[in-house]
Structure formats: structure tokens, C-alpha cells
Design brief:
This is (northern house mosquito) hypothetical protein. This protein has 300 residues and is mainly alpha-helical. Helices cover 51% and strands 7% of the residues. Helix 8 packs across helix 10, helix 9 packs across helix 14 and helix 10 packs across helix 13.
Length: 300
């Protein structure tokens, strides 16, 4: 009987069942995205080469569908909001004029195009004409879509072994157990490619690309990180990174919102019999059920 109970416990309460523990940071070039998109529209390599040679005037290159697909593949386009400046900026070497960004925004704001493919193409043309020179072959950080961020946070909880009672508190907006949150955020920062593990410094350009706050690229934010490293005396890297998030990154509140929503999703799937202060959120496979991938298949 004791053997049966032991086996049943092992089957029902694995620590992190269903979580993916590897780093998920993705880096991709504009060129790679173009070649990845080409088969969707039955375009051959020569067509892609012509597009890359002259993306501002892609005549005969799959109309404007290829440009929109590339932007979607780089998570740099939304059919409602349009082109995402916080993502696409990486792929350009800015022109020497000081107002390149403002001129680009004005160009995009002046577009009056209903067709999403044509609007994506014209938005890209604004960048090519006003912002800078396209860097087609260098790989840059690709942010997670919203669904991917939530999946990341759910897996972070699972990998951190966050107890059910903490998840239930966070789902209700109670963030008082900071060290439990710090563990999940630390894991997410490493897995998402936002943190240099060796130095415990954030890659602020990647955090900006993911979360859009321009202040993340400021000298003040960089000085803040250095100050926390210098003045926050601890041998605990988790506590150090959490302090930097709270004091230096404007994304702290959005991260709390993500933690709350992802905790609520896990709690909603909590199997019967799981709970209590000793039970981690890996209690049963159904709480780790994965309904979406980090990069859901886009619909063009």
C-alpha cells in the first residue's frame, strides 16, 4: 500500500511538469524573415533577393504581402496599431539628421490606407525613406507577443515552484510575498534573454523592445543599474535583480500585471487536491497544460 501511495504521489506531484526550462530568447534578421515568409506566397529565392535589394519598391515581389509578413514575423507589425517603432528601430542604421525619428512618425501618421498589406509596405517605406538604412542580415532581438509573455510567466512560476497559496494571493492582486515573485521574475529575465547572467545587468535595449518604454534607453536608467549594483549589498543575485527591476525599470507595474494574470490562469486550472503551503504549482499536469506556443502561427 505504501508503495502505491509513493507511486501515485510521484505521478500527481511532479515539481515542474509541463514547463519548458530552456532559454527562449529569439534573434532574427530581416533577411531571414523574408526567406521564411516567401513559401507562404509561393515566391522563389530570386524574388526574395529582388525584394531585399530594393524593399522600398518591391514591384513583382508578391505585391505588399511579403513586407507585411516580414514585419509580422519580427513581431513588428499590428494590423490595428501599425508598425512597432520599439521593434523595427533595431533593423536600421539611422540617418545623420537629428529629426529622423520624428520625420518617420509624421510620414506614417499621414498614411490613409485601408488595405493592411499596402499600409505595412508604405509604413516600411517611411522608415526606409526617413529613418535610416536597412540592415538586412544582422540578427536582432525579437520580442514575445502578448500570448508568449503570459506563457513565459506561467512557466516561470512552474520552474520556480511557486506555492499554490502564493499564486492564489497574486491572482487577487496581493504582491506581498516579494521573494516568491523575485524568483519567478529572475527566471523569466534569464530565459527571456533580458538579463546578462554573468553581470546581473539588464540588456536595456531588449527590455525596451519588449515593453516599449523609451526611458529604458536613458542614461538615467543605466546609472540606476550601476548604483544598485554598487550600493545594494547582497550575495543573493535574485534579490539584486529584483531591486533593479523595482528601482530602475519602468516595467515593474506591467510585470506585476503579467504576474497577476498568469497566476490567475494557473489557479483557474488548479486540480482538486492541490493546495496548501507545501504544494508547488507543478502539482498536476493539468495546471501546466500548454494551450499556445511562444510564437503562435500568425494568420495572414
Amino acid at each position: 500500500m505504501r508503495l502505491f501511495v509513493t507511486i501515485a504521489a510521484a505521478l500527481l506531484c511532479p515539481v515542474v511538469l509541463g514547463a519548458e526550462s530552456e532559454q527562449i530568447a529569439t534573434f532574427k534578421s530581416f533577411e531571414e524573415a523574408a526567406y521564411d515568409c516567401a513559401p507562404y506566397y509561393l515566391l522563389d529565392d530570386s524574388t526574395v533577393r529582388r525584394f531585399l535589394a530594393n524593399p522600398e519598391h518591391p514591384s513583382g515581389c508578391g505585391d505588399s504581402r511579403l513586407a507585411r509578413c516580414v514585419l509580422i514575423d519580427l513581431v513588428a507589425w499590428d494590423d490595428e496599431a501599425g508598425i512597432k517603432e520599439n521593434v523595427i528601430w533595431q533593423f536600421f542604421e539611422p540617418y545623420r539628421c537629428n529629426d529622423y525619428a520624428e520625420r518617420t512618425r509624421e510620414c506614417i501618421a499621414g498614411l490613409r490606407i485601408q488595405d493592411v498589406n499596402e499600409r505595412a509596405q508604405e509604413s516600411l517605406r517611411c522608415y526606409l525613406h526617413h529613418y535610416g538604412k536597412l540592415i538586412p542580415s544582422k540578427k536582432y532581438f525579437v520580442p514575445l507577443p502578448d500570448s508568449g509573455l503570459l506563457q513565459l510567466k506561467r512557466d516561470d512560476y512552474l520552474l520556480a515552484g511557486t506555492p499554490w497559496h502564493v499564486l492564489e494571493e497574486v491572482a487577487e492582486g496581493n504582491f506581498s510575498r516579494e521573494y516568491e515573485l523575485a524568483k519567478a521574475l529572475f527566471i523569466g529575465a534569464v530565459r527571456g534573454g533580458f538579463l546578462d547572467f554573468s553581470t546581473k545587468e539588464f540588456y536595456m535595449d531588449r527590455v525596451y523592445t519588449q515593453f516599449t518604454f523609451p526611458s529604458l534607453l536613458s542614461e538615467e536608467a543605466a546609472r540606476c543599474q550601476a548604483k544598485v549594483t554598487r550600493e545594494f549589498h547582497t550575495n543573493d543575485p535574485i534579490a539584486l535583480v529584483f531591486e533593479k527591476i523595482k528601482r530602475c525599470l519602468e516595467v515593474y507595474q506591467p510585470l506585476l500585471d503579467l504576474l497577476k494574470e498568469s497566476a490567475a490562469q494557473l489557479v483557474a486550472k488548479k486540480p482538486k487536491g492541490c493546495g496548501g503551503k507545501s504544494s508547488g504549482c507543478g502539482c498536476h499536469s493539468c495546471c501546466a497544460e500548454r494551450n499556445d506556443a511562444y510564437y503562435p502561427r500568425p494568420h495572414y
